[in-house]
Design a protein that fits this description.
alpha+beta, 2 strands, globular
Length: 119
């Protein structure tokens, strides 16, 4: 039907959490993970609930809360799967294009203006 949008994304629990972490570190989302249930044996789905963070938080505090909300320990049915240590403050560097950098900067400006208006 005209005007309707359909979107489908396919993630494993690991790929979702990796994407979430990248988006959080780049300051592109305003949600923390409230609840996470990995894919159970012989099942096809995992479940995640996100909670909107207080927009009055500064970016550093927001990122800290988001990283702390990442599930700890194994994420898959594999024994010994590596988890994320949210206390690890080692910077993670990701290569992004000039266009991506421009878009990220624009989004940060817009979000900062919105946060200022909402305060």
């Amino acid at each position: 039907m005209p005007g309707q949008v359909c979107s489908c994304s396919v993630f494993t629990p690991e790929s979702f959490l990796e994407l979430y972490e990248k988006l959080a570190r780049l300051g592109l989302i305003e949600f923390e993970i409230a609840h996470f249930v990995p894919t159970q044996l012989n099942q096809l789905e995992f479940h995640v609930s996100l909670r909107r963070l207080d927009v009055s938080l500064d970016r550093g505090s927001m990122i800290e809360r988001q990283l702390a909300s990442l599930p700890r320990g194994p994420r898959s049915s594999e024994v010994g799967a590596p988890g994320i240590d949210p206390s690890d403050s080692t910077p993670i560097f990701m290569e992004i294009s000039d266009r991506e950098r421009t878009l990220i900067t624009a989004k940060r400006r817009i979000l900062e203006r919105l946060r200022t208006l909402l305060r």
